[in-house]
Amino acid sequence: MYTTQQEPWKEFFSPRPEDIVYEDAHVIAFRDKTPQAARHFLVVPRAVRIKGVEQLSREHVPLLNHMIQVGHHILNTTSLLPHQYRMGFHVKPFRSIPYLHMHCLLLPFRNTWQRIRFSEASGGFISAFRLLGRIQAR
Ligand SMILES: [Zn+2]
């Protein structure tokens, strides 16, 4: 279906097949191999080579919208309250992998440090919804 060259995400992530929870032509979602909350998934664009949120512009709004929809789907957010889950992106210097990936977390976090790492107050994380508003204005 795809060659590795068309799927640059494979240079950065190698989920086990059993950890893949969703995939379509544009994105793939899988369990984080070191979960930091009750449930922890990553949603990754398959073929769009972007290092991080600072490279996103208005042309990426459909992709980001799609990633958010997939996040809602895999977290099953219709049964959750807003404070029970989080979706978003690390920003420098907390970004660990130079390929765009959205964290989807079902709370609670496993420890205080993780709560800080995934909070906007730390300055190292941005919620997917805030980011969407920001790139729509770019
Ligand atoms: Zn990350």
Automatic annotation (TrEMBL):
Question: Which residues, by range, are in coiled-coil regions?
Answer: none
Gene3D superfamilies, alphabetically? Answer: HIT-like
Database matches in InterPro entries: Histidine_triad_HIT (IPR001310), HIT-like_sf (IPR036265)
Q: Which UniProt keywords apply?
A: Hydrolase, Nucleotide-binding
GO MF term set? hydrolase activity; nucleotide binding
Q: Say if the entry is tagged with keyword Repeat.
A: no
Signal peptide, first to last residue: none
Active site feature? H101
Domain of life, source organism:
Eukaryota
Q: What is this protein called?
A: HIT domain-containing protein
